[in-house]
Write a structure and sequence with these properties.
The structure is a homodimer.
Chain A (H helix, E strand, L loop, with lengths): L2 E3 L9 E4 L1 H10 L7 E5 L4 E10 L4 E10 L7 E7 L5 H11 L4 E5 L13 H18 L7 E5 L1 H6 L6 E5 L1 H5 L5 H8 L5 E6 L7 H9 L3 E3 L11 H14 L2
């Protein structure tokens, strides 16, 4: 069944008003009408099986048949802090990260980030990432749309205490055969644990940055012995989290 | 150190002739010359630490200082059979799959593959994938360049017996909460085991195809409870294989 995220306020009664974009998608793209079955999501972890009651050109309603807790969220809360990469890689990571269960995306400029976001353009850039994540969340059966924000490295470090563990993707330890730190973190994770993944840009993190983060509590981890591209490392980490915590 | 795959025959003596593209890369792109240190690879799992001895415009030689077995290959041999997706997704999967340790890529047309490869263009398409995989192998510190081939679904099924396990990525089981089949396969894997991963196109596999493959021995597996896009599923599977077999 097609899935749509609505504003949380839309779920006041059993009869839900459908927003214009959903009406358009059901009526024009999918050629659906009254009786069409769908799943509505309130973005807080609940899903509502519903049936279209009325559908006009610009408005429509659906009746909720069943409310249930979604079972598609990772058991831990994962924030990805991703140092701005070149080109549209951050969009690829926003999309794939959402499919793989990421809950929050924090974008920041590290010392070796070649790309920069002009301060004036930040709201527009975040809006675009948010749209990509909402579409990916609907398509991948997520019950929550990840959030995104842009911050400075200093603001990022100041947040470390809010997490149960901070995992630093660090290719230098991969080259030297490190192979257990990430598994140790995941073995210690409990339902509801908050994990922060820290991933650098194409050139990797600067040594001084790494030293500062380790001092602040980050655990340097290798994601296998191969050297992954900047945009591949978050996908590895999220897949491994799912495998370790969901598939056993 | 920069890494280059050479033909296996190049390693007859300690003094290795460098091919023209490597000479160009070292001399013109990296501005290196005699004394420049690099790693040469024979594609069979060995790496050779070497030093440039002579470097002219179009020719050059390097002396091997040390030959060693590479430690960056997955302990199991993984073949990805990927049903032709739309657009350039197969290129993304070739690149990322190489970074994540894939050994062979088999491309085939499944019933719901919208994209088709014109028979005349197959060699050119495979050549392009091979080039992408070689570059990704050099960049990710692989010791082997994955191979690729194009075949029919029938030829694919006929090969099932050559593998210790055939993992079928099947989203229908993901929707119904399956969560242990993939872990069971990986727990049974031993060093040198041969695994075949079978991943469908955007619309997923057709039910008859699935039934045929299961009858031929494939194990339907979910890669977590979320529904992954066609190009994300192989990356999840390869990351999980690395996590399960390399990071413990």
């Amino acid at each position: 069944m097609q899935r749509y995220f609505l504003q949380r306020e839309a779920f006041g009664s059993d009869l839900v008003e459908l927003p214009a974009d959903v009406v358009h998608h059901i009526g024009t793209v999918l050629r659906g009408g009254p009786g069409y079955q769908l799943v509505l999501l309130d973005g807080t972890g609940f899903e509502y099986v519903a049936e279209v009651v009325t559908l006009d050109k610009k408005s429509g309603t659906a009746r909720v048949v069943e409310k249930r807790e979604a079972t598609t969220e990772l058991p831990v809360d994962v924030t990805l802090a991703y140092a701005l990469p070149k080109g549209d890689k951050v969009e690829l990571v926003a999309q794939k990260g959402t499919e793989l269960g990421m809950h929050h995306l924090l974008v920041f400029e590290s010392k070796r980030s070649v790309a920069k976001w002009d301060a004036k353009k930040v709201p527009k850039k975040l809006e675009r990432l948010q749209k990509i994540m909402q579409e990916a969340a609907e398509q991948s059966y997520r019950a929550v749309v990840p959030t995104c924000a842009y911050l400075t490295p200093k603001e990022l470090t100041a947040r470390f205490n809010a997490y149960d563990a901070v995992v630093l993707a660090y290719e230098e330890v991969a080259k030297h055969g490190e192979g257990s730190a990430f598994a140790t973190v995941l073995t210690a994770a409990r339902p509801g644990s908050k994990l922060l993944l820290l991933v650098g840009p194409e050139g990797g993190f600067d040594e001084a940055e790494v030293a500062g983060w380790i001092e602040a509590g980050a655990v340097p981890c290798a994601f296998g012995p191969r050297i992954l591209r900047s945009e591949t490392a978050p996908l590895y980490a999220l897949s491994a989290i799912s495998y370790a915590l969901e598939l056993n």
